[in-house]
């Protein structure tokens, strides 16, 4: 590990912010792989709309991972972008839906976004006490993730504002309810 961090932070503050960011890096790497999995495995009448909606999300989330990794390096730490790092940092289950309908995948993906966004908000709160630059980075990324979730939910919402998978607690349950 480097013997420096960004100006204005102590070495220990830089290390703590980098640790928080490492969790985000692993989550973003997992998310862009999950999104690509959905892209490849979605079927049914709404296939093309969902297939084409997902790729820009993949690209954006890959960009988030790159920005977070570069911030970790600027803080004097070493970003870990390996499959092993994802597994080590993971506090969530692996995506559980294979080849399935657009509705099933989108309902499951909505729960994935719930988890990622919730964890981003916790990270924002923690780093906001230490480093407003990192806080700003995470706020912008979270704003975009919330927009992506809105895109997903628009496919699942009825005219009364109810989601097709309302109350589902697992990806599999959400997929089953949305089908």
From TrEMBL:
**Residues in domain Ferritin/DPS?**
20-158
InterPro entries, alphabetically?
Answer: DPS_DNA-bd, DPS_DNA-bd_CS, Ferritin-like, Ferritin-like_SF, Ferritin_DPS_dom
Gene Ontology MF term list: DNA binding; ferric iron binding; ferroxidase activity
EC number(s) stated in the UniProt entry for this protein: 1.16.3.1
Main enzyme class: oxidoreductase
Keyword match DNA-binding: yes
Top-level division of the source organism's lineage: Bacteria
UniProt keywords (A-Z) are: DNA-binding, Oxidoreductase
Q: Which family does it belong to?
A: Belongs to the Dps family.
Q: What is the protein's given name? A: DNA starvation/stationary phase protection protein
